[in-house]
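Weekly modeling sync, notes
Attendees: S.R. (lead), two postdocs, one rotation student

Agenda item 3: backlog of single-chain predictions. S.R. asked that every request posted to the team notebook include the full sequence so nobody has to chase files. The rotation student volunteered to paste the first one in as an example of the format we agreed on. Action items at the bottom.

Example entry:
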Amino acid sequence: MTGDQSLHTEPMHASDLDAVLMIENVSFAAPWSKNMFLEELSNRSAHLIVFKSGETIVGYICFWAVLDEAHLMNVAVHPDYRGRGYGKLIMEHLEAICLRENLTRIILEVGRRNMPARRLYKKCGFNSIGFRKKYYAEVQDDALIMEKQLAQKEIEEDLSNRTNTR
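Predicted structure, as returned to the notebook:
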């Protein structure tokens, strides 16, 4: 993983779920259940990764890879480790995976009132592209749909090179 060398990644396993659920429960008003994580662990489209400092899980991410796009389903950092740039490192790791797997876009939904997450996504280059009214029914919040196009620079350079050679 780039950046902080004390943070390393591993695929999430069922044995990680106690620590993951503790982070999940303190991070979200409508947290995922253990069964939801277990379902994702058995979903062939899902990628679940834990981020560790030593042996301590400090964060995790869950995303689906479908066709040429990643759909970010869930991401969280333990409250004791927030404010250290780990959220940005996790998002950079997601982007690196996507580029390696030739995924061209990352898409996500974020609560309209979730300002810390919205600031993080904006800092990481995501743009708002839509809105889902009352998407988070349990907490009576709307969702913003955000996306980040990947490898656009390479696509533009390729198009420019083709145009210049004619």
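Discussion: group reviewed the output briefly. Residues 86-100 form the longest helix (15 residues).
Action items: rotation student to repeat for the remaining queue; S.R. to check formatting next week.
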